[in-house]
Amino acid sequence: VAKEAGRNNRKLYDIGMNAEKRHRAMLNDLMHGAIDRGEMHLVYQPQVEVRTGRIFAAEALLRWNHPGLGLIPPSTFVPIAEASGLIGRIGDWVLETACRQNRAWQQAGGEAITVSVNVSARQFMERDWAQTVGRVLAATGLDARFLDLEVTESMLMRDVGRAVATMRELKALGAQLSIDDFGTGYSNLSALKRFPVGRLKIDQSFVRDLASDENDRAIACAVISLGRSLGLRIIAEGVETEEQVAFLTLHGCDEVQGYHFGRPMEARDLARLLGCRDGPGRLPDQDGAAAE
Ligand code: C2E
Ligand code: MG
Ligand code: MG
Ligand code: MG
Fold first, then answer.
1. Model-level pTM?
2. In which domain of life is the source organism classified (predicted)?
3. Where are any strands of DSSP class E within the chain?
4. Is the ipTM of this complex over 0.95?
């Protein structure tokens, strides 16, 4: 009986896998042309300097709103696009849209901020990707210092030599580099020292339970002091409470991002916070097309 039950379970499991596979394949098909149909757009989440309360940057976050399926989260569709290779085109579009938007805010008289763009492993490992970034900067007119590229540890560890070379090219362009989700990857500390990054983002999984979890407090403190001793800036993500802000600042983390300071928002809403002029036709729309 046990054996039979085992077989049955096994069968159900296989059917489950197939359904999951089919669903992923369907989403991948639907993703073709999603940009051209206007189903994807970017929202922007403020990054704040605690001491002054100033918004100095915003992270661009991708949203896919499918007319039939509704809003599909990036945690679902980005890995699928990454696996199929679609992320290349989508990522290029994200980069260009974010740069154009940031330029549009500046042209509308907004306070100049940096825009942070998430880079996928696939994009980053593309040959001559730094040249693509250079072309996008030239095409959008955004000064490279207002672009920050967020990469992850696991991405960099795939091929350290190659990653270092690409990062040097990006630095040479004048762009900023951050390591996203820091602490969740395979942290090769000796490699970390070779990466020309300016900033670590403490992963939100360590921030969430700061109030109650002693281990998370220890990890957050360790990341902050590691980063500081390497001369890096540190930002905490997923900051939701005043208590978390107090703990993080007390321990030397001076940049924060999270619902406590602002949710990811439409470009026009951030434009308002940045003090952009909003006369008719002047307010940059979500993809920057309406600017000046
Ligand atoms: P991430 O880059 O680590 O982005 C942070 C995620 O945390 C975002 O989720 C953001 O909305 C969420 N978040 C921000 N503040 C808080 C908070 O206070 N509490 C909580 N619980 N969550 C908060 P989102 O937008 O769903 O994005 C998820 C992930 O998808 C991103 O993680 C990133 O890895 C990926 N992603 C998003 N946009 C892009 C993109 O344009 N390209 C690529 N390659 N990946 C992207
Ligand atoms: Mg990110
Ligand atoms: Mg992150
Ligand atoms: Mg992430």
1. 0.91
2. Bacteria
3. 40-49, 54-66, 70-72, 114-118, 147-152, 176-182, 199-202, 233-237, 255-257
4. yes
